[in-house]
Amino acid sequence: MERFPMTRLRNPSKGRRGGFSLLELLVVIAIMFILLVYSAPVVSSLLESSRLAIAGQMLVDQLSLARQESSSRNNSVEVRFIKSPDGGYQALQMLALGTGRIPEPLFMASRLPEGTAISEDAALSPAFGALPMTTGVMPAAGPFASCPYSAFRIKPTGVVEPVASAPNRAKLYFTIVPSRRAKRSAVPPNYVTVQLNPDTATPLIYRP
Predict the structure, then answer these.
(1) From CA 73, how far away is CA 44, in angstroms rounded?
(2) d(CA 65, CA 28)
(3) Quick check: 158 and 201 in contact, CB under 8 A?
(4) pLDDT tens digit string along 143-163?
(5) d(C-alpha 87, C-alpha 188), whole Å
(6) Residue 1: what pLDDT?
(7) Per-residue pLDDT reduced to its tens digit, 53-65
(8) Separation of alpha carbons 180 and 174, rounded Å
(9) Residue 163 to residues 4, 98, 160: CA-CA distances in angstroms?
(10) Separation of alpha carbons 174 and 182, rounded Å
(11) Which segments of the chain have a pLDDT < 70?
């Protein structure tokens, strides 16, 4: 019986390299781009909301610290809201009344998180109009050189001075907004409001 050599059948799948075709890669890239475009505003809004929350808590902490320093030193402490050239108040500084009643810095000025500011509009931050605050200009040296500021003082008893008139006592609140909206009067989608008790200097924070 004549034998024929056995031939091994070739697996058609062998010899083909695994991977994606150019068309498949383009489809995947297109899908990723679409998802990125639609998710970017959501991510941006979340980041902005987070920064505003941090800024709001920072303002509360600074006001609470000013109240504590005033009580422990048995001396009035001045709280300065430093205005940015870009609009809005973007930094704060605490000062104690030193010799000759001249304010002396207790700490370096603290800047709010990037992209946030305390609105300068009277409708959103009526405290700047309700309190007859003192105004001035920061020293010519430092990170806030020659920037204007508005200030009030907290007495050791917790009373805020200058004292607001009776109709304005409930208007001692500040609204923190995205810095690009610091000059606008319209209420933005994201914001944080901090209210100050005129008798105890106790701050309260509100979120929409």
Answers:
(1) 43
(2) 53
(3) yes
(4) 899 999 999 999 999 999 999
(5) 16
(6) 53
(7) 999 999 999 999 9
(8) 16
(9) 112, 21, 6
(10) 12
(11) 1-19, 39-43, 99
Rounded Cα–Cα distance for residues 62 and 45 (Å): 26
- Residue found under tokens 């941006």: 44
Look up residue 80 and give its two tokens. 């300065």
Cis-peptide into 103, omega within 30 deg: no
Within a 13 Å sphere around the CA of 161, how many CA atoms are in the beta-carbon half? Answer: 12
170/147 Cα distance (integer angstroms):
29
Question: Quick one: tokens of 5?
Answer: 């050599």
Q: What is the DSSP string of the chain?
A: -------PPPPTTTTPPPS--HHHHHHHHHHHHHHHHHHHHHHHHHHHHHHHHHHHHHHHHHHHHHHHHHHHHTS-EEEEEEEPTTSSEEEEEEEEE-GGG-EEESS--EEPPTTEEE---TTT-THHHHS--EEEE--SSSTTTT-EEEEEEE-TTS-EESPPPGGGGGG-EEEEEEGGGTT--SPPSS-EEEEE-TTT--EEEE--
Distance between CA atoms of 44 and 23, rounded to whole angstroms?
32
- Can you give the pTM of this predicted structure? 0.78
Torsion of the alpha carbons at 102, 55, 159 and 183, rounded to the nearest 10:
80
With tokens 């409708």, the residue in question is: 123
Give the angle 125-129-134 at the CA atoms, nearest 5°: 110
Rounded distance between C-alpha atoms, residue 177 and residue 76, angstroms: 29
